[in-house]
Prior knowledge:
The protein is an alpha+beta fold. The protein contains two helices and five strands. It has a single domain (5-81), classed as Alpha-Beta Plaits, CATH 3.30.70.100.
Amino acid sequence: MTSNNIQMHVLISGIVQGVFFRAETQKKANENNVTGWVQNLDNGSVEAVLEGEKDNVNKVVEWCNQGPDPAFVSNVDTKELSPLSNFDKFEIK
């Protein structure tokens, strides 16, 4: 692991469930060599943990601000965490 790796906790609010947000996030993460996971929350938002090279993680976070076409993203909260490097892929929970 290089020192350029980060882990980012992301909370996406808006119309983000039932619009393929998780599947498209997984696709975008895989395209950018980002590992971690994404899941729907009971309150209608989507939560993700992204880990990888800083630039690649930031590309996925930037994409989360818009999401797939049917989505309407009203807010994205991010918090950088220490990278744990305990993910070997990106999964949908």
